[in-house]
Design brief:
9 helices; Multidrug efflux transporter AcrB transmembrane fold; four-stranded antiparallel beta sheet; two-stranded parallel sheet
């Protein structure tokens, strides 16, 4: 049984609006749980006298009282540990715990300021703006500008939902999250283009007043492909979320939210927006609903 996607478009808009509203309220009241990369902190680069693992290093920092430390491998036998701003005495305590648990061979401390985080965010915003301009140009050339506007609205929808979910669940926002957000844009665009490409192919067959029915049919023609693509994309993401390291989990969580939102927005946001706009065109307008020009002529004739 086929679902009348376009007939329920206001329901889909309401669902998206409610999710975004909850996220924005949380964002205004709670904000985002920013990682040390976006705040002041201390960064330790350390190597050990024996083979170890990220979990062992993280365990040693937890014993020192820093369970929120971010531990990453940066080379053969070298680890980077990002912590809140520490005093010299606190740095000594961390090194002592690492030395007693694993054995420190070499170490170096570096102060981390919020400037790095601002640079990352600024670079992300520049990348988003440039990519959106290129998307508008490409989609307008390949389809038409109405498709491009609907695509950008769907991308904004996905970004707002991802940011809102991060605020609601309180998950830490890291530089990996920023990278994931940029990846989400590419996936969401791909999924929307799949739908719009079929809509464009079927548009010449749309009868007056039946544009929504044509869009429904187009969605069902690509539904299997969209579902399979989404599931196959989610499989490695879920594996990273369940079995990856902490840094990979941050990346995977953002991808999970963004991919689900992107799959939703291509069908339930972008397509209905395009339908609303196209149905106002005279060639698709239902009979009995005269255009403004026709109304004006009728009034002058009377």
């Amino acid at each position: 049984m086929h679902i009348d996607f376009m007939g329920k478009k206001y329901l889909w808009f309401a669902i998206s609006g409610l999710i975004i509203l909850v996220g924005m309220v949380s964002l205004l009241t709670r904000g985002l749980n920013l990682s040390i990369d976006f705040k002041s902190g201390s960064r330790l680069v350390v190597s050990f006298s024996k083979a170890t693992s990220v979990d062992e290093v993280r365990g040693a920092t937890q014993k020192a009282g820093y369970g929120d430390a971010v531990v990453q491998t940066i080379g053969e036998g070298r680890y980077q540990i990002t912590l809140p701003s520490l005093t010299p005495e606190e740095e000594t305590t961390v090194i002592a715990n690492l030395g007693s648990s694993i054995g420190v061979a070499d170490k170096s401390w570096q102060s981390v300021g919020p400037t790095f985080g601002r640079q990352v965010v600024n670079s992300m915003l520049e990348a988003i703006i440039i990519s959106w301009l290129l998307m508008i140009a490409y989609v307008s050339f390949r389809f038409e500008y109405k498709y491009a506007v609907a695509t950008i609205v769907a991308l904004m929808h996905d970004l707002l939902i991802t940011v809102g979910v991060y605020s609601v669940v309180g998950r830490e926002v890291t530089t990996a999250t920023v990278a994931a957000v940029l990846t989400i844009l590419g996936y969401s665009l791909y999924d929307t283009i799949i739908v719009f490409d079929r809509v464009r192919e079927n548009a010449p067959r749309a009868r007056r007043g039946a544009y929504a029915a044509m869009v429904n049919e187009s969605i069902w023609e690509v539904m299997a492909r969209s579902i399979i693509t989404t599931l196959l994309t989610l499989m490695p993401v879920v594996c990273l979320l369940l079995f990856g390291g902490e840094t990979l989990k941050d990346f995977a969580f953002a991808l999970l939210v963004g991919i689900l939102s992107g799959a939703y927005s291509s069908i339930f946001v972008a397509a209905p927006l395009l339908t609303l706009w196209k149905e106002r065109e005279p060639r698709y307008k239902a009979k009995g609903t005269p255009a403004k020009g026709a109304k004006g002529k009728a009034a002058r004739a009377s």
